[in-house]
Amino acid sequence: MKIAYVSFEVVPFAKVGGLADVAGALPKYLKKRKNNVFVVMPFHKIVRDNFNNLKLISEDFVPLSHELKQPFSVYEGKLPESDVVIYFIKNNELFNTKDIYGGRDLALQSSYFCDSVLKFIKEIHPDTDLINVNDWQTSLIPAYLKNNYFLDDILGNIKTVLTIHNLGYQGIFTRDKFDLTGLPDFIFNPEYAEFYGYTNYLKLGIIYSDIVNTVSKTYAEEIQTAEFGYQLDGVLRSKKDFLYGIINGIDYEEYNPLTDKRIFKPIKNYNDKIENKLKLQEKLGLKISKDVPVISLISRLYDQKGLDLIQEIIEYSLALDFQFVILGTGDKKYEDFFNELSKRYPKQVSSNLFFDLDLAQKIYAGSDMFLMPSLYEPCGLGQMYSMRYGTVPIVRYTGGLADTVIEFYEEGNGNGFGFYDYTSKDLLNAITKAVFYYKKRNKEWKKLFDNCMKSNFSYETTALNYEHLYKVALELSRGGED
Q1: Which of 254, 263, 422, 424 has the largest CB neighbor count within 10 A?
Q2: Residue 102 in 3-state DSSP?
């Protein structure tokens, strides 16, 4: 298989969310499985500012269908520590803001990029079998293939997989943003592009992709319901026979507790874990004690992450005698709340309202528990990072959290604690249970630590599942079922 993996953000070149982590890791593991894979992304300003070793391979290409006929150039690089080639579509007038989603016209940027990707593939990689697109920013690629290029000798044979990382972001724009795409007018109707009078780029991707997948099995089921479907549940139910869920992984080579230079000490056993904890307490100015559990939160500070539940119970729960560490940025209401909380409880709460990868790793390695009480969570990576370093997750069982965290029982099974109903009372019960086990059941807690360390969320498994999905998509074309 020759696979084009297309994403608007890719680590380490440009990152806003978890999509970039996936796009920077999954292709490398697909390559290890002997697949021919390359990555395509925009040449954002942040790439131009920070990476000067990229090679110009072509210029003056023009999109095939898009109303904007500006030429674009293509640059080539490599994903770090791999031989996976990554290509950058460069148009300085469109991709010219420090924030990769800060442009004045995201609809124009994304639609131009999608059509440019197809021009690039036609000219440079005409033997491509399949394109894996990601989220709304690249969702017009399947629509172009099925409408504008289905008779093209090269592009007409390419199959598509759309991966939805978060259904809450759909690319909803006014009608005129559809007109500039160059897609045929007749598909602007409620069955296809129209979405309550607007155009919806993700909807088009869902309809025209050969396969749709999302980032956990539970989330694939949830998004077919009115509660989690963001008004696309009906469209997704119509695609149910071609809708899959594959849990994301983490890069076990980069996030390795035995070799990670960012943590205080390699973690070979539980005693090493405690040493990391004591060093973390010292660094953050908390009371140094192995007997006081440390609960951490590393997150974007938004409503989706369950922070309203934390607000309601955190001062009550601090009476359980644990320390609370926060790392992240987001809504001002939450930043102000956590800042004030740390002022009131300086030896018990550490609020770090920024993001620092080195500190994040020290927190993952030095915490006893990791908090993720999300309202919804398509996959989640924090719980995987935490378990990789022997830190026990406390989660709400939704989406990928339900697929990766197993409730711990005294028999010794499970790798975390959680709750189902989205209430502060149930969150408090889960925290209370976790703190109880830490303080009163030392033998069981060490077993829980071991279970976390043994949990396997490597991209090797993820890549195997994606490879199977690609084969399913290619068989559809051979069998004529699409």
Answers
A1: 263
A2: coil
Residue of 183, 221, 215, 212 lying closest to 199 (CA atoms): 183
CB 289 within 8 A of CB 281: yes
Tell me the pTM: 0.91
Return the residue matching tokens 């020290």: 362
Strand partners, 85: 38, 78
Do 301 and 328 meet the contact criterion of CB atoms below 8 Å apart?
Answer: yes
Torsion of CA 153, 8, 73, 57, to 10 degrees: -80
| Phi and psi at residue 433, to the nearest 5° | -65, -45
Q: Kindly list the strands in the beta sheet with 349-352, ordered across the sheet, starting from the edge strand earlier in the chain.
A: 349-352, 323-327, 294-298, 369-372, 392-396, 417-419
Q: What is the sign, positive or negative, of the torsion defined by CA atoms of 381, 386, 389, 390?
A: negative
- What does each C-alpha distance from 106 to 5, 100, 172, 472 come to in angstroms? 20, 9, 10, 32
**H or E segment to which residue 481 belongs:** none
Q: Which residues pair with 370 in a beta bridge?
A: 296, 393
DSSP 245-298: E----B-TTTS-TTT-TTSSS--SSHHHHHHHHHHHHHHHT----SSS-EEEEE
Q: Which has the closest alpha carbon to 16: 121, 117, 131, 135?
A: 135
- What are the tens digits of pLDDT across the range 157-203? 999 999 999 999 999 999 999 999 999 999 999 999 999 999 999 99
Token code pair at residue 468: 């199977």
**3-state SS of the chain: helix, strand, coil percent to 5?**
40, 20, 40
Residue with token string 């391979």: 57
Residue ranges with strand state E in 68-114: 72-78, 85-90
Q: Please check whether residue 162 is in contact with residue 213, taking contact to mean a CB–CB distance below 8 angstroms.
A: yes
Q: For 294-311, how does the pLDDT look when each residue is reduced to its tens digit (9 = 90+)?
A: 999 999 999 999 999 999
pLDDT of residue 477: 58
| pLDDT tens digits for range 5-34 | 999 999 999 998 889 999 999 999 999 999
153: Cα separation from own chain's centroid: 34
In order, the DSSP letters of 210-250 are SEEEES-HHHHHHTTSTTTSTT-HHHHHHTGGGEEE----B
Whether the CB-CB separation of 76 and 57 falls below 8 Å is answered with: yes
* Torsion sign, CA atoms 203, 209, 210, 214: negative
Residue type, 53: N
**What is the per-residue DSSP string for 388-446?**
HTTPEEEEE--HHHHHH--B--TTS--SBEEESS--HHHHHHHHHHHHHHHHH-HHHHH
Give the whole-angstrom CA distance, residue 214 versus residue 158: 21
